[in-house]
Design a protein that fits this description.
Low-confidence stretches: none
Shape: elongated
Number of strands: 0
Length: 156
């Protein structure tokens, strides 16, 4: 499951093509700057209105670029969080398996030491059994069918 999540996030990040978009926007900004510098230095000012129009158009794409940046940031943060959680899970599992491999799958030493100390001793209890028993006599020899057990239980 973690591999699938990791792969899906990577595929989404790859589909954003961050490197190509960054290179293209940087190239566009450089070309506009060159055109503006060239238009200001020469007496021919026919190019300045075109540069201004291109600059305005590029400025209108800023909200779209912000959304693109937010989506890419969100995907990268999710990829980092998924990697962190997966690493933590693997660390815990590795610790558990290492303990199992070194100590084996058995009872802890505290339980092994106290094994003989708290042994249960069975005693005959007066009045134990179904209903109001008398002494140490067992009433199971008097019960012939399950209906009698149900009847005795309903009488209590």
């Amino acid at each position: 499951m973690s591999t699938l999540l990791h792969q899906n996030l990577l595929n989404e990040i790859i589909s954003l093509d961050l490197d190509n978009v960054a290179k293209r926007i940087s190239g566009l900004m450089c070309r506009l700057r060159e055109m503006a510098d060239c238009g200001e230095s020469t007496a021919d000012s026919d190019q300045l209105p075109f540069v201004r129009l291109c600059t305005q158009l590029l400025g209108s794409t800023i909200p779209l670029l912000h959304q693109y940046l937010n989506v890419s940031h969100h995907l990268l943060v999710n990829l980092l969080a998924a990697h962190r959680v997966t690493s933590k899970l693997l660390s815990v599992l590795l610790s558990i398996f290492t303990d199992l491999a070194s100590k084996g799958f058995c009872l802890p030493p505290e339980i092994d030491e106290s094994e003989g100390e708290g042994a249960t001793e069975f005693e005959d209890i007066e009045g134990g059994g179904i209903g109001e028993g008398e002494g140490m006599k067992d009433v199971s020899d008097q019960i012939e069918s399950e209906d009698q057990v149900a009847l005795l239980i309903s009488l209590q």
